[in-house]
Design goal:
- The protein is an alpha/beta fold.
- The chain has three domains: 28-146, Immunoglobulin-like (Sandwich), CATH 2.60.40.1530; 156-170 and 216-368, Rossmann fold; 172-214, no CATH class.
- It has seven helices and 19 strands.
- The protein has helices spanning 2-24, 156-169, 196-202, 233-252, 283-291, 302-310, 327-337, and strands at residues 29-35, 39-41, 44-54, 60-70, 74-75, 81-83, 86-95, 99-109, 113-125, 132-146, 171-184, 206-215, 217-222, 256-265, 271-277, 293-294, 317-321, 342-348, 364-368.
- The protein is elongated.
Length: 376
């Protein structure tokens, strides 16, 4: 009789807790995902914080938090995960009443890109794990992984050539904000340049000397088309890293530049057009734009996008960065070469596959891709 009584009581408790969990397990459960940084550079680490809160009296003996993200984000602890076209994560928590658990996951970011996590799936269980219950929470976080400059590739000759051409084509103007010294007055000097204090002190007319500033302009065109049967993603990524290095060095020299790319933005779907950017303050915006270039989408036709821009101005030095060596692209460069000087930086994977038109060979710098050359 006692055994039957105990069995009845146990059955009642079992079904009662099962009913309570089925009705209330999701109440007061909050899950947040957050990267600890807004942006990093390719090759660096970042942490993803998982915060789970149970704001009710019922304990959660088993709570699975499931989410997916890009396979280009590498979790250093790969427990309870699977990688196919995406990275699938399944973390297990046990949360007591009115408790918060924060878990930190360390990630390695080997490749540039814009990565986001949108929403998590929850799988809960009752005290006896008799049934799994499914829910979802809308939480989102995103991360910019900026391209690393291609430091291990020899671009010095190309940069010297670029700087030399800019020096020839620049307009030299007087900088009204930089004082260089005082000199004697000449008849050609304007009266506004007279330094009246120095004139009163010496008894002779003296004028201020100003530093000179060079108005320099460069434009960089990234052609990320790939007509090969097997897509050469490593050459496309190298092209973006080369562009990043050139942008960084030119901006550090005070050179104003414009940047174009026929790949599409992963958020807006638009091609990249950034005009007249100067000084290092513009570098974060350029970094974000380069990070968001989506190589999975079909790029726009390069000539159709930028023909008018290319042949519309005469005073800008032009840099092309592209692994594309199709006849159509080289014909465009030959046509442009008859109009003005330029440099073509061309990443290739096979040293024997160097098919560059003789008309533009002097303007071309070939960059041989090697697996062991990792961008720093």
């Amino acid at each position: 009789m006692v055994i039957i009584f105990v069995a009845v009581i146990a059955g009642i408790l079992f079904f009662l807790q099962k009913y309570l969990y089925k009705k209330n397990w999701q109440k007061g459960v909050e899950v947040f995902l957050q990267f600890d940084k807004e942006s990093v550079t390719a090759g660096e680490n970042v942490r993803l914080l998982e915060v789970v809160e149970n704001r009710k009296y019922l304990p959660l003996p088993s709570l699975k938090v499931k989410f997916q993200c890009s396979r280009h984000l590498v979790f250093l602890d790969a427990t309870n995960s699977a990688v196919t076209d995406r990275y699938y994560r399944n973390d297990l928590f046990s949360v007591m009443p009115y408790k918060r658990i924060t878990r930190s996951n360390k990630l390695f970011c080997p490749q540039r890109g814009y990565f986001s996590i949108n929403g998590v799936d929850l799988v809960g269980a009752d005290l006896f794990f008799s049934e799994e219950m499914v829910g979802r929470r809308d939480t989102s976080t995103s991360l910019y992984v900026y391209p690393a400059p291609a430091k291990n590739y020899d671009l010095e000759d190309a940069l010297k050539k670029i700087n030399g051409e800019i020096a020839v084509k620049r307009y030299v103007l007087e900088d009204p904000f930089t004082f260089r010294g005082i000199r004697e007055y000449h008849q050609s000097d304007e009266m506004k340049t007279v330094n009246w204090k120095a004139t009163a002190r010496t008894g002779d007319l003296k004028v201020n000397m100003r530093e000179h500033t060079a108005v320099k302009n460069v434009r960089i065109f990234l052609n990320l088309s790939d007509r090969n049967i097997l897509r050469r993603e490593e050459l496309l990524e190298l092209s973006i890293s080369v562009a990043k290095r050139i942008v960084t060095e030119l901006l550090s020299q005070g050179i104003q530049l414009s940047l174009y790319a026929n790949a599409k933005d992963c958020i807006s779907g638009q091609i990249l057009e950034m005009k007249n950017r100067g000084s290092g303050t513009n570098l974060p915006d350029i970094d974000k734009a380069l990070a968001r270039l989506d190589l999975e989408q079909q790029p726009a036709n390069f000539a159709e996008c930028f023909y008018d821009e290319l042949f519309g101005e005469d005073d800008l030095y032009t840099i092309f960065v592209s692994p594309e060596r199709h006849d159509e692209f080289q014909d465009l460069l030959c046509e442009y070469g008859r109009k003005g000087d330029f440099t073509w930086l061309c990443p290739i994977k096979d040293a024997t596959d160097d098919t560059i038109c003789s008309e533009i060979a002097e303007n071309t710098r070939v960059l041989l891709f090697e697996e062991n050359k990792v961008s720093e």
